[in-house]
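Consider one such protein record:
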Amino acid sequence: FGARSPRAMSLAAAPGASSRVAHRARRDARCRASDGASVVAPHTKVLRDLLRSPRIVQAPCAHDALSARLIERAGFSAAFMSGFCVSASRLALPDTGLISYGEMVDVGRTCNDATSASFPIVGDGDDGYGNAMNAKRTVRGYAKAGFAGILIEDQVAPKACGHTKNRRVVSREEATTRVRAACDARDEDGSGIVVFARSDSRSAVDLDEALWRAAAFADVGADALFVDALRSKEEMRAFCKVAPGVPKMANMLEGGGSTPICTPQELEDMGFSIVAYPLSLLAVSVNAMERALREIKLEGYPRDETLPTFAQLQESVGFPEYYADDARYKA
């Protein structure tokens, strides 16, 4: 790929005007359907409404049912389910394409079961777990598991965390076909699941390629766009100028990622609609578990100030609600 600007690239390489008009019409139809709530699930309608809002949506990342419930209980309006974190928590393995579609769907189902019907969670669909037909199956499976949205990316298998080394992406044609297949699955099944099209080409190629792909993904029907590992605020602003009207996602990777850490207001001012915090809950959990284990080993018991009370822990996992419901069925 050459280091050309998106404007200088051949128009023949991108979807044509007729394609853009057709997909815009389909996107408008989905919005009308969500307004009527006749087809689209409640949590999906909520996510679409949030993305149309002028205020940025803060969405921490869950890795299991409990973390998803805690995010909702803390008052956030949406969440992501992170492939990095699910791979770590379920398999104790790195995010390098080792976790499977079935394992991700299984964890996703428990996350959605643990939260209210109107709480939207966006699942990490990685590279769709294969070719375009696999991507379609992935979108359908994620919708059936209760996800309001899904991330589909353009990495070469085996994929990995976008902020790690040696990122590679598939060709432009394969990338846009993958996203188009995901959008077709959304429309054919009527789920209305929100398709977030992600490109890792900023790390794999360059910024111009990433911006070209983001625009192409919008042209084939993506509902929202995400370029991972942008390296400066200037790059972030340039991304937000691509495909006006299509929501943009930011990723505030904690602890030393490639992208500058910005406040929600800064991101909103740049033009982002939603921001993910991918590692916060997993990272603090690992730190807390390691600290407690050290204290048990060295002192015989973890320090009281680091622990919730047993009553607080029971509340976190739902004992009060269980007891209240159980009382209704006493003989």
Summary: The longest helix spans residues 17-36. Strands lie at 57-62, 79-81, 121-124, 149-153, 194-199, 224-227, 249-251, 274-277. The two ends are 72 Å apart (CA to CA). The CA atoms of residues 82 and 235 lie 24 Å apart.
